[in-house]
Amino acid sequence: MKHAFVYTVCSCILLSVIIAFATPARAGSYYEAGCRYYVHKNWEKAKENFLKDIETTDRGDSYYFVGEIEKNNGNLTTALEYFEKAVERKMTPKYRNLAYWNLIVIYESRSDFPKTIKTCKYFYEVLGEASAKTKAENLINKLMWTENEDAKKEYEEGINSKSKDYSLALQHFRQAIMLDSAFLSPVFEIGMYYYTQNQYRDALSYFNQILYRIPFYGELQLLVGEIYFQEKRYSEAATAFEAALEYAFIDKDMKYSSQLKVATAYYNIGQYTKAETFLQQAISTKKGNLSPYLLLSAIQMQKNDYDGALQTLQAAYKIDSNNPEVLYQLGLVFYNKNDNKAYEYFEKVYMQYRQKHKEIPAKYIKAFIITAQYYYTTKQYSKVVELTTIVPENLRDESLLLNFARSLYMLAQYNEAIVHFNKFKLSDNDLFILCKCYAFINDTSKVKEILSSNYYNTNFINKVKEDKLLKPIYTEVQKQRETPATVQPQHQEEQKDLPTTHETTTEPIHPQ
User: Fold this and answer.
1) Is 20 left (phi over 0), alpha (psi -120 to 50) or beta?
2) Is the dihedral of CA 440, 443, 447, 453 positive or negative?
3) What's the chain's average pLDDT?
4) Close Cβ partners of 370 (under 8 Å, ≥ 6 residues apart)
5) How many domains, the chain?
6) Does residue 271 fall inside a structural domain?
7) Which DSSP symbol is given to 359?
8) What is the per-residue pLDDT for 339?
9) Angle at alpha carbon of residue 18, lines to 14 and 23, rounded to 5°
10) Distances in whole angstroms, Cα of residue 228 to Cα of each of 201, 238, 249, 250, 292
């Protein structure tokens, strides 16, 4: 870190340069007359003509020259106003640069350091003036430095000791602070030591001492924002990242990352409007990245703005139509809009993971469950079986498993269907299907046991009587029950664990 503050700026412009770069709109114009009077240092006439040109053309260059005249006359407040207005308008590039330098010098002379840094940042990032960045760095260094020679000596000893004995270096840094509590460079060094040791709370205690005095130290705000973000202190992280975006000299990638993180921080503390603002900025900063679209759509869904979320996700879909999260969120939007397209997108999510043989995140499982249930109602039984199979056993509820068993039956997988049906107390319809499963695998003894134990269940028995496959078996059971038997008690004992029925609202199933 450099600590010398060296900056010089020319307070006047060579008259020959003024003449060379003056670009009058037409011969005899107010602007041309103003330039002539300016060259001859006739400030009053020059100002008069430039002001008339401003009224006529609102020319940025004329604002600049009036600012120069006011500065030469010692009227810095008025000069500042004209320089600020000048840079807001079209200008000759050379005069624009000079206007910015004037703004920087006047802001600094007034100790308005935040505006000084912001002006340097704009000058550097938008107009490409590299020396503006150097100027900002020198200003920060100056504010962190000291004139106390003893403190400076201790600091230099600490710097020299860092590579050999950091504990000794820390002693020197602390001694430097004791000699001058306003000396912030050693404070920064101690903070960085704790940061490299992952002792973030200690690091923050030192970094925040600096930011309390120099809140416009953008690069340090960025570092502090990262610490807060990692520790999920989202309110503090948002504040720090916003300051970093305002003052730090950062490249496009870092700007995008900071915008996304401040948006995420605001999302996590429920300040959705602020989050949306920074997400839109992130989208503009770096097009083609999905993250801001996905977070923006999540916010829009939180606000029940499903049309807005759909529009956002359609833009994301154009970027990557195979991204599982994009597909999942599209499914959620359509699901909340009661649109059956939801299940198409949920299935696409599943297909992405099946094709790549990747583990499916738990967050998608619920979507697969409701999709499986939907496919059952639309008689897409093989899809029901496939989706149910990937749901972890601890997440399979009775409704899902019964539809799974019913689908197995419809796919003629009778033995497996029987296993799942026997896990539950069945409705009349499901008990009927179970009987059919046993009948199809020729296990008539099981069919008879179920019919006997449910002999007085009128609704169930009526279904059986109407079925060509089960009716003959029922007739046999009926004859046996009408014939007196001396072994009835034993028979009843054997039936005590057989499936029985319970009331249900399930629609009747008509097996194939």
Assistant:
1) alpha
2) negative
3) 89
4) 335, 343, 346
5) 2
6) no
7) P
8) 96
9) 170
10) 10, 9, 20, 19, 20
Kindly report, residue by residue over 414-429, the tens digit of the pLDDT. Answer: 999 999 999 999 999 9
Rounded to 5°, the CA angle 244-182-228 comes to 30
Residue pLDDT, tens place only, 116-128: 999 999 999 999 9
Closest CA to 326 of 359, 289, 362: 289
Q: Given a cut of 70, is residue 507 above it in pLDDT?
A: no
Contact present, 445 and 415 (Cβ < 8 Å)? no
Tell me whether residue 101 is in a domain. yes
Q: What is the DSSP string of 178-221?
A: HH-TT--HHHHHHHHHHHHTT-HHHHHHHHHHHHHH-TT-HHHH
304: left (phi over 0), alpha (psi -120 to 50) or beta: left
| Tokens of residue 418, six digits | 């029987």
Which residues have CB under 8 Å from 86's CB, separation 6+?
60, 61, 63, 64, 67, 95, 96, 99
Q: Is the dihedral of CA 481, 486, 488, 493 positive or negative?
A: negative
Closest residue by Cα to residue 238 from 258, 211, 210, 208: 258
Domain stop point among 85, 117, 144: 144
| CATH number reported for the structural domain that contains residue 131 in this entry | 1.25.40.10
The residue segments making up the domain with residue 43 are 15-144
Q: Does residue 32 belong to any structural domain of this protein?
A: yes
Identify residue 334 by its one-letter amino acid code: F
DSSP 374-434: HHHHTT-HHHHHHHHHHS-GGG--HHHHHHHHHHHHHTT-HHHHHHHHTTSPBPHHHHHHH
Q: Is the pLDDT of residue 348 over 70?
A: yes
Give Cα 371 distance to the centre of its chain.
Answer: 27
For residue 252, tell me if it sits in a domain: no
- Bridge partners of residue 501, in order along the sequence: 426
